[in-house]
Amino acid sequence: MHKIKILYTIPNFKSAGSGKVVYDLVKGIDKDKFAPEICCFHSEGGFFKEIESLGVPIHIFPFTTNLKPYHSLLFRVLKIAKFFKNHQFDIIHSWHWSSDITEPLAAKIAGVKWVYTKKAMSWGNPRLWKLRSRLSTKILVLNKDMIPRYFEKLKSKTELIYLGVDTVHYHPQQKKDSTTLGYDFDQKDFVIVTVANLVPIKGVEYLIQAVSKLSDPHIKLLIVGDYQNEYGLRLKSNNKNNNIFFVDKQLDVRPYHAIADLFVIPTKTSWEGLPVAPLEAMSSQRIVIGSNVEGVKEVLESFKDFMFPAKDVNGICNKIKWIKSLPKAEKENYELKMREEVEHNFTLEKSLHLHEEFYLKL
């Protein structure tokens, strides 16, 4: 039986964001039917070792090229096409974030089916994104709002497949009062956790303002993620609240789910494709609240009372006070329902199965 040879393209594995999705796809895909390979620009990045452990072929190759200078563009695209053709890939699945058109153009010249996953609710250069989409064989989207917003004229090309969470890895946890990094809390404390690489769209400043405004000495906030940038460092340096803690990026966030009474995703713009961090918290049987923006509202579609308007400090305050005041039995019931939501709609197994079906239909 001929195995379908799939090349997953991604610029790098500097972080475990899209890299982790590619890792899960390559690791979990049925090896009796598919032969996955990976292509990236370089071998740098903390997550690359994890990718190497998969034991599949990894190509370090520039699978895109600059549009300029135009006089040499065709030559450079043909070089990429030759690489695709020589390796006899059946499908190329791009996880590149950009509006690049050279990769799909090279795939078309090589006669290889080329698909891409639209990861975020941003469009950048509309002309190039539209051309990238028209050059594609199919487009995968991560939430229902993407199709009417960006692909109304290309509906026949688009398909919705949610990202999935490993519900065994992110399992229900008993509440703990400390982490291995030395953060300790007592039983009176109400611990809020958010996990994100700190960039302005994440809206973490509104969560900080809400916790400060509540002025409750028992409400503690842990902000977990890479803050080594202008926005993150500014938030950290401006923080005067002793109950708010900045925790550097963690490869394993489960210890922070374990101490959390509440997980918050305060995204301030319609940017998220499908945020995985709140799904991981829900899978760990934690209550999640989030802003009512595309992507986040897909995750919390069954929990509309757990959303607040984006950038609304008072809205965040009210949700925190509400969750904090819940009787224990009611709180546990919500935690269970959020875990069940992930089990029904957002499991890694379901995502893998839908991807396999998608590839077979191509």
Topology:
Blueprint: E1 4-9, H1 17-28, E2 34-40, H2 48-52, E3 58-60, H3 73-86, E4 91-94, H4 102-110, E5 113-118, H5 126-135, E6 138-141, H6 146-150, E7 158-160, E8 190-195, H7 204-214, E9 219-224, H8 230-238, E10 244-247, H9 254-259, E11 262-265, H10 277-283, E12 288-291, H11 296-299, E13 307-308, H12 313-325, H13 328-345, H14 348-361
Parallel strand pairs: 1-2, 1-4, 2-3, 4-5, 5-6, 6-7, 8-9, 8-11, 9-10, 11-12, 12-13
Account of the protein in words:
The structure is a single chain. With 362 residues, the protein is an alpha/beta fold. It is built from 14 helices and 13 strands. The protein has helices at residues 17-28, 48-52, 73-86, 102-110, 126-135, 146-150, 204-214, 230-238, 254-259, 277-283, 296-299, 313-325, 328-345, 348-361, and strands spanning 4-9, 34-40, 58-60, 91-94, 113-118, 138-141, 158-160, 190-195, 219-224, 244-247, 262-265, 288-291, 307-308. It has a seven-stranded parallel β-sheet with strand order 3-2-1-4-5-6-7, covered by helices on one side. A six-stranded parallel β-sheet has the order 10-9-8-11-12-13. The relative contact order is 0.12. The mean pLDDT is 95.
Features:
single chain; alpha/beta; 14 helices; elongated; seven-stranded parallel sheet; 362 residues; 16% strand; 38% helix; six-stranded parallel sheet
Main beta sheet strand tally, sense and closure: 7 strands, parallel
**Helix content range:** 25-40%
Shape field: elongated
Low-pLDDT residue intervals, each spanning 5 or more residues: none
